[in-house]
């Protein structure tokens, strides 16, 4: 009787294997190794390049590394971001590293609220999309591998059941 119970559990596990789908949130370190700083004079591309070179997805995490007491991170509306009005913030993060979970899709606007930092280029605008984390491939797999997936998803559980049946009975 115990062998039958074990077989039922193995069959259930084998059938659920193809349904198992895990995604991990990607962490994006804002500014890379430079961190969250005032960009060099004339280098307005530091944060625009960072935003353009990354894909931000729901539940990904932005990590802002900065010198606590010299910088901070605030979230702003688009209107206040565009004008660098850091007096009306939605959220403020004053201790580094600031870890911000991208908990909705759409636009996010960040800046440093220290005097003149935003107007000197220490601001970031990103777009967050739904879907799996940024660790997923950016392009779809070739058609051949997509066609093979259902075969693999069925073959592995069937093999698993066959081996379990031979071992148990």
Automatic annotation (TrEMBL):
Residues 1-25 form the signal peptide. Residues 26-130 form the Phytocyanin domain. InterPro entries: Cupredoxin, Phytocyanin-like, Phytocyanin_dom. One of its GO terms (molecular function) is metal ion binding. GO terms for cellular component: plasma membrane. It comes from the Eukaryota. Keywords: Copper, Electron transport, Glycoprotein, Membrane, Metal-binding, Signal, Transmembrane, Transmembrane helix, Transport. Pfam families: Cu_bind_like. The chain crosses the membrane at residues 147-168. Gene3D superfamilies: Cupredoxins - blue copper proteins. This is Phytocyanin domain-containing protein.
């Amino acid at each position: 009787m115990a062998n039958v119970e074990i077989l039922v559990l193995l069959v259930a596990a084998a059938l659920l294997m193809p349904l198992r789908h895990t995604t991990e949130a990607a962490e994006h370190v804002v500014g890379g190794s430079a961190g969250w700083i005032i960009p060099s004079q004339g280098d307005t591309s530091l944060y625009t390049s960072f935003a353009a070179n990354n894909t931000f997805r729901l539940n990904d995490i932005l990590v802002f590394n900065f010198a606590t007491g010299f910088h901070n991170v605030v979230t702003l509306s688009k209107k206040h971001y565009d004008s660098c009005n850091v007096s009306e913030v939605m959220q403020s993060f004053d201790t580094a590293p600031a870890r911000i979970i991208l908990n909705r899709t759409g636009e996010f606007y960040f800046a440093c609220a220290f005097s003149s930092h935003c107007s000197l280029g220490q601001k970031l605008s990103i777009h967050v999309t739904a879907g799996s984390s940024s660790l997923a491939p950016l392009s779809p797999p070739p058609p051949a591998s997509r066609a093979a997936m259902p075969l693999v998803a069925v073959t592995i559980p069937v093999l698993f059941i066959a081996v379990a049946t031979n071992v148990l009975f």
